[in-house]
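Researcher: Please translate sequence to structure tokens.
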Amino acid sequence: MFEWIKRIGAKARSFVLPEREERRARNTETIDLAPYTPEPKVFLGQLAYLELSQFEILTNELKFSPTTSNKAELSEAAARSFQKYRAIAKSLALQGFDPTDSMDPFTERIETFHSRTSGIDWYETVVKVYLVGGLLEDFYKRLAIGLPDGIREEVEKALRDGSFEKFAKACLIDAMAENPQLSSRLALWGRRLMGDVLLELRGAFDNRKLAGVTKGKKLSLEEERRVNLEAYSKLEPLISELIGAHSLRMDAIGLAA
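Model: Translation complete:
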């Protein structure tokens, strides 16, 4: 798994992210995600809990904000994050699903992911949410292609707000200008996050479905391994794009990916 991540990471170093419209067309031709989009309850349940947990992380960091201005701006960004959660939860309810029941199957996996990617201070947490939140939202916007049109439009609308990204860029660039040593530390942290994010987004897929294997079919350990490798290979173009987007986000705040 980790050799695979290193290999596609090397491919993505020279990646140039095209405009949104061009990117969507190119990727749809390379890998059609529509057949692999989870059913609406599963898709929305995962996304809702990711947004809710991000809101929780941001509100927990308010008390550690280095300046009053940072605290005020972060509180506004956290409120916008909660609005994303509310929009996804509303979409679940409109489909006849209970939002809490829909999120419950994914809480342990997502909490484990957050525990592995917990920053040691306010700055690392802001970098994490900026990079990880942006990457996962990119991913879910791509994966939404297979949802019914009305639900997909609601997801895209909910994820359109970029308030936190603007806040994170401004405060991090200012902080690193005042403290050059912070830049080196945050660059290492940003690179380290990438592997954990790739493992998390893999959890949104069914490997057997990606590999075209019947869900209930019994497989040997070697056959299961081949199924997993085939699934990873099928996703490689998408992963390369997401790694490229991660690199651009790092570049935008002056960090080397």
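Researcher: Any highlights?
Model: The chain has one domain: 19-252.
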